[in-house]
Amino acid sequence: MIAAFKSQEYLWMRRSHLPWFEKQQSSSIKHSSRHRSDWLFALTPGLDEDYFDGVMNTLVQIMYYPDTRSTLRQINDNKTSELESAERQRLSNNVPGARGTGPTMSWGAFTGSPSLDKRSMANPPRTPLSQLLPPLILGGAGFSYQHTQSPNVEQTREVVSRAFELGVRAIDTSPYYEPSEALLGEALSHPDFTTRYRRSDYILMTKVGRVSATKSDYSPDWIRSSVARSLQRLRTSYLDVVFCHDIELVEEESVLKAIGVLLELVDAGTVRYIGVSGYPINTLARVARRARKLYGRPLDVIQNWAQMTLQNDRLEREGLQAFKEAGVNCVCNSSPLASGLLRGEGVPIAALGDWHPAPEGLRRAAHAAAAYVASQGEVLARLALRYALRRAQHCSTSDVRVGTIMGGTTVAEVEENVTTALKVLQRSNGRLQWSSQGIGGWTENRDAQLDLRLSRDVQQILGKWRNYSFSDGKTERKEDVVQTKL
To answer: What residue spans carry the region label Disordered (predicted)?
Structure first.
């Protein structure tokens, strides 16, 4: 719909439906559903009729009453503030969102003004993502050929349904995790799911830029096409978060241009929050600083993988402070098991083969650690997930929050992961939330103390491989060994 307002289709719409608009003018802009342009409404399946009518009424006023634009600007700003405040309150109180509460559309999206509104560039969303993102997020890579031999619709639907029943309310995926987006779109649009959950009940995150194991495309045209394709695959009218994916694999200038394109989409209401993802912490922090300087606003979120784990804690030691200095107050820690390294079964080998960047020495050390933990009556994967969640909670403050992205390719895995997470988190009103200890706390109980002892033993077993870095594509430090993540 927004595209129609910004292109020649907008002019065609005005010419071909001029009698309808004139009728609205003659009736003092009294708009009702019987006057709606059915062809335009059909372009936006699932859009609430009242919301649509409000948009069309606003268009009529803009077209015929130019003098009201300053007033409408103020109305739009006030309404945007009200909607974001209501959404923040709804999420904190676990109150289901009202039907038809779609993405907030900015003034630029209505008027066809220059695509990158400087007001939007200078002002991030009023409600920080850190106040909305839950502590545990379902990773969409589990529905890809990297992590399973045969990803399919039925299994994805079962996993997503069970995860939401257990309290999960956020999903992270990528076009690169083929065919994750399409499978998730099928699952999230299935009647059994939509009758229980509204789109506003959960956060949906995806990425742009990474195309395949050997190709990235950060051109503006591809970024726009990628987002449009993700919207279609995921069967949604908006994306809560879009990351530039694995930014260390391309030149930083390309990433900065892509961020500008994403800001256009934020301005249009297609995307709500934007960020960058990757492995090298120095690169992520540097791009965040440059983006803030270039666009006059910080990124909303940074995603880093496998560096708040039993094996590597560099995100906690160096990353969080560097990101905070760049103005970023929300961080996603993905791969708490170091992409499957920290488990008894060893690294995942699926349809695309053995892609894991861990060298043989580290794999042997992780296997020895798993055997030791098993001898103590525990499972390394469970210990590693609890460790990551406890560190995330310990590092989170009222200003900076760390969410953890967990895996799960089967219902059994998701059930085990959530059961494990509940040793640290709590479930309240059907949603997973931080424990009663509060942000920044460390649960001082017997289980936590046992975990602490086992964690220290595992880190001793890892020995020289503790804090070994998978330098992805570019080396940040001379001692880093360059590896390639699929």
So the answer is: 80-107
